Amino acid sequence: MAEAAQMLVSQKQKVLVTNKHGEKLVGLLHENGSREIVILCHGARASKDHFIIENLAVALEKEGISSFRFDFSGNGERKTEDGLSFVIILVSCNL
Fold first, then answer.
1. Are 79 and 26 contacting, i.e. CB atoms less than 8 angstroms apart?
2. How do residues 39-92 score in pLDDT, each as one tens digit?
3. Taking the CB of residue 57, how many other CB atoms lie within 10 A of it?
4. Is the pTM of this model over 0.90?
5. Across the chain, how many H-helices and E-strands are there?
6. Residues contacting 44, CB < 8 A, separation 6+
7. Rounded to whole angstroms, how far apart are CA atoms 32 and 29?
8. What does the pLDDT read at residue 51?
9. Which residues contact 18 (CB under 8 A, 6 or more apart)?
10. What count of other Cβ atoms lies within 10 Å of the Cβ of residue 95?
11. What element of type H or E holds 8?
12. HEC readout, 11-57
């Protein structure tokens, strides 16, 4: 029985979210059926796969709390080679 519960904890679902600029952001939903969910946001030059974010997601799952971690535009799986997309969005937000 404990092994089955451990297997549920480790299941993740990849989710694509389209932002208002039409970019598809990649996220991982750690769903365990809880009513609570924590949105985990990484820092600059990091991604949803940074070890601290991953460890937080696992720790929350062990406490029975679902979480969602994602890559901001220009980071992680959505990183552009020159970062131009990120710069364009940053500039347009400041206009």
1. no
2. 998 888 888 989 999 999 999 999 999 999 988 877 887 665 444 554 555 556
3. 22
4. no
5. 3, 4
6. none
7. 9
8. 93
9. 24, 25
10. 4
11. helix 2-9
12. CCEEEEEECCCCCEEEEEEECCCCCCEEEECCCCCCCCCCHHHHHHH
d(CA 85, CA 95): 16
Task: In whole angstroms, give the CA distance from residue 27 to residue 76.
Answer: 10
Distance separating alpha carbons of residues 66 and 55, to the nearest angstrom: 13
* pLDDT at res. 55: 94
For residues 62 and 21, give the distance between their C-alpha atoms in angstroms, rounded to a whole number. Answer: 35
Beta partners for residue 38, in sequence order: 67
Give me the pLDDT at residue 58, please.
Answer: 92
Most confident region among 3-12, 34-43, 72-81 by mean pLDDT: 34-43
Tokens representing residue 46 in the block:
């990091």
Whole-angstrom distance, CA of residue 87 vs CA of residue 82: 9
Tokens of 87: 């710069």
